[in-house]
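Possible regression after last week's pipeline update?

I re-ran a chain I had predicted before the update to compare outputs. Posting the input and the new output here so someone can diff against the archived version. Not blocking, just want to make sure nothing changed silently.
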Amino acid sequence: MKLHVLFSFFAASLFLGACGRSYHVDEAGVRILQVELKHQDVKLEDLFERVEVIPLETNDSCLIKEIGRVIETDSFIYLFDVNRVLNFNSDGSFVNSIGRRGRGPGEYIYVTDFDIDKSNGDISILCPFGYVYDYASDGKFIDRHSLAYRRNYQNLVSYNDTCWMTWTSTDWDEDDTPVAFVDKDFSRVLHNHRVPVHNIDILRADAVLTEYKGRLYAGFMFGPNVFEIRPDTVIKRFEWNFGNIMTSEETFVKYDKPLDTNPEVNMSRDREFFSDLGIRCFFGNYKVTDRYAYVRVRMNADFDKSNPPKDLELTCYRILYDLKDDRPYVFDGINGGMLQGNVKDMTDDYLLEVVEPERFKFYKDYLPEGMSLEDIDVEEANPMLAKFYFKRK
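New output (post-update):
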């Protein structure tokens, strides 16, 4: 079982830093960023000029369990909710569900990801068993495509509207190329890539992907490297360093042996890995734009050295890095409780956060005009979306 199942997935990003000039570039052109994980007293007005809250309509047709991916268009907000894609208007009113679960024509059994073909607005939904289902924005089924056999499809990204990138969950004993680029109609594999990371990152935690303006990056839960993934190559772009709390390269290499055919042997090796490393940093939820980068890091000083951890007391650090001014902001929530949720989108204009009902109280002053918390049944409500608009600099 992969660690993202045990951890409920951690969000994070590409660039980390401390006060002053906190990075350098190595001989290979890789940007190295160092940070002291120490919370700063960050205020809303330090970073943002305004906040916009979008309450998501709640009814029996659109009850949300857990928001995964969020994709915004000029008119709609598409949300991946566990095993389906929901379509909302930009004001949060529910429009329709895209496709439905089943075994009939145009129905899917299970969903792991989706993306939108920006050239025509069609929604493509990925099934882990190697199928992609195309739908129009009104939910009408268009077509189904069969992908080349791979173990377990996890991610689908439209790459510059020229092709698609798929990521598969692999054990590396049979297939060491989790990345595949396929052509627009999914009929032909263009390129396969192996990503040069340590086994623990591929075997026990899938990549965390982020895309902005046609650039696609992959980061991982344990290792410090971030790669740009292109159709023709994979390039290491970034590396971060937190000083003596980082796991050494030599220790990672020690566990880069091939998997055994006996699953019990592999599980025993997992236990040995965690016990030996005392690993304390977990990264995820990478977001990056031309101006900003965001990461959530979770760290534990006294790691439970038993099994792959389940219930850790983790300290959370959220880092918003101003790339232009070379200034990082390190915090765990601002103004008492804002920005403590998952960041699902980031542009050069705003950062978009998912706000769960238990944190609505921190956003009461930013609700749409004419709405108050008294109008919301917090016990039954869907999450809200909050857009934090950056100050113009």
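Follow-up from reviewer: compared with the archived run. Residues 263-277 form the longest helix (15 residues). Marking as no regression found.
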